[in-house]
Design goal:
Elements lengths: L4 H10 L1 H21 L4 E10 L16 H12 L2 H11 L10 H11 E8 L2 E11 L2 H58 L8 H39 L4 H4 L4 H17 L7 H20 L11 H78 L5 E6 L12 H26 L6 H8 L15 H30 L3 H16 L1
Antiparallel strand pairs: 1-3, 1-4, 2-3
Helix pairs in contact: 2-12, 2-14, 3-6, 4-5, 6-11, 7-9, 7-11, 9-10
GO cellular component, one term: plasma membrane
Pfam families: Wzz
InterPro entries: Bact_polysacc_biosynth/exp, LPS_length_determ_N
């Protein structure tokens, strides 16, 4: 079925009252909202994240954090209850509303504020702080106060981190220094307790032990030689009755061999025990030679022994020397034994001392690193105290706005007019769809399946003119209300409604002539 435009305009004409009423109500509501909504002023300040003013390869700050996360933390701190109430009290924002509860103030303050982060990943990082208020001065004051507190919070955070880092490394250096002192005292006490069994003196003690053994062997050889000399003196005296025979005549081959064997026995006795086969063989050979030498001497010594006194003196002297050498040998044996005990203790002491020294080296390494890091931390703290590191700076302070940011009354009025048109047409459409009347012959044919012969025009009842008049009055009232709302809106927007009306009337008069 083709669209009958004339029929649609006819429906709109007969339903014009409904259309105008709905449109007027919607437009009036929109205009009332545009007029009633309070003006909101918005002020905005901009912050910039500046990089460090000192090259990081020369001196680096100890505050190393992701600035995006850092700004988010600052944002959360700025929106805390304490901070919101502090800003409201500082700027006296709610002095005209003493009945407001603190929770309501905090909620309203948070609704006024906006943080917007932009940039990052190779681009400059900006922070936009916006504040809304019923006046421009309040909005600017809130934004600037928030900027001040944000910069103070950033500086406080960075100084706190830098100071805390320096304090930590100072305590760490002190702790490691105390630990080093304790280890040094333990090492010194151990060295004092084991002064004779330390690894560094092992070579000296082994050399000294060898020297003492050589001296001991020499003492034993001298004892053996003195014993041989004593026995020879006695043998000579018993054989000849004289004490100088040995000196007056050269020794025989047997006597030379006997002296050699005795010296060899003395040397081997310092190394082997008395039960050793070599020692036993030497002793048997020495005994045979002694008997042979004794058989060569005169069997019957003279009755008179004029050299007995001299022999006795020589024997006493030899015995004294032997006793002295034996005491020396005993002392040397004790020293060798003591030295051997110390040498045997040296490996265990070396292991213990090495463990203590490794522990000290580890602590010393930690101490050196802590000292170096403490120096870096002191430099980083100095950088933060002088504000030479990465920081927030104000790019633009908030200025007092001259025009409100919302509501957009023109947009609301235009939207209200469009909505009135749409709702008016919708009301007409719904009324026609719900209407039980048949208005055209085509509808009769469609509904009943018959073709009418003629169409009788509509005959109005006596009350319908009165009803139409009342509806026109209502519509006129709505139009007047809408016009009044429009005039008030124009006044709020700064346009003089009276002058505009007069100019429109003048134009109409000119056109109608």
């Amino acid at each position: 079925m083709s669209l009958d435009v004339r029929y649609l305009f006819w429906i709109l004409r007969i339903r014009f009252t409904l259309f105008l009423s709905v449109a007027a109500v919607v437009v009036a509501a929109g205009l009332a909202a545009a007029v009633a909504l309070p003006q909101v002023y918005k002020a905005q300040a901009a912050l910039l994240v500046e990089s460090s003013q000192i090259p990081s390869d020369l001196a680096a700050s100890t505050v190393r954090t992701d600035f995006m996360m850092h700004l988010q933390r600052i944002q959360q701190r700025m929106l805390t209850r304490e901070n919101m109430l502090g800003i409201a009290e500082t700027l006296s924002l709610y002095d005209d509303a003493p009945e407001m509860e603190p929770d309501d103030i905090v909620r309203d303050m948070r609704d006024r504020l906006t943080f917007q982060l932009s940039g990052g990943r190779g681009n400059a990082l900006y922070v936009a702080i916006s504040a809304e208020a019923d006046t421009g001065s309040k909005a600017a004051a809130i934004a600037n106060e928030l900027v001040t507190r944000t910069i103070e919070a950033d500086a406080e955070f960075r100084e706190k981190i830098a100071t805390g880092t320096l304090s930590f490394f100072e305590k760490e250096v002190w702790r490691l220094g105390e630990e080093l002192d304790q280890i040094d005292r333990r090492i010194l006490a151990f060295q004092n307790d084991n002064v004779g069994a330390l690894p560094e003196t092992l070579d000296f003690r082994m050399n000294r032990q060898n020297l003492l053994r050589e001296r001991l062997a020499q003492a034993r050889r001298e004892i053996a030689q003195l014993g041989d000399q004593r026995r020879r003196l006695v043998d000579v005296f018993e054989a000849t009755g004289r004490t100088d025979t040995i000196a007056q005549r050269p020794p025989t081959r047997e006597e030379e061999e006997l002296s050699t064997l005795r010296n060899e026995l003395t040397s081997l006795s310092a190394v082997f025990s008395d039960n050793n086969p070599k020692i036993s063989v030497l002793k048997r050979r020495i005994a045979l030679l002694e008997r042979a030498i004794a058989g060569q001497s005169p069997a019957d010594p003279p009755d008179e022994t004029p050299g007995a006194g001299v022999l006795e003196a020589q024997l006493v002297e030899i015995d004294s020397q032997i006793e002295t050498l034996k005491e020396t040998a005993a002392t040397l044996e004790d020293q060798v034994a003591e030295m051997q005990v110390e040498i045997d203790r040296t490996p265990a002491n070396g292991i213990t001392l090495g463990s203590m020294e490794r522990e000290r080296d580890n602590v010393q390494t930690q101490y050196d690193r802590a000292v170096a890091r403490m120096s870096d931390a002191a430099t980083g703290e100095r950088i933060e105290l002088l504000s030479k590191g990465e920081r927030l700076s104000v790019v633009e302070n908030a200025v007092v706005p001259t025009h409100p940011a919302s509501p957009n009354r023109k947009l609301i009025a235009a939207a209200a007019a469009l909505a009135g048109l749409v709702f008016g047409l919708a009301a007409v459409t719904v009324a026609e769809l719900l209407s039980p009347y048949i208005r055209r012959p085509a509808e009769l044919t469609k509904s009943l399946g018959v073709t009418p012969l003629a169409a009788i025009p509509y005959v109005a009842t006596p009350f319908e003119p009165l009803w139409r008049a009342l509806r026109r009055v209502a519509v006129l009232a709505l139009i007047v209300g809408v016009a009044g709302g429009g005039a008030l809106l124009l006044d709020r927007l700064g346009y003089p409604a009276v002058e505009i009306g007069q100019s429109l009337l003048t134009r109409l008069q000119q056109l109608t002539g």
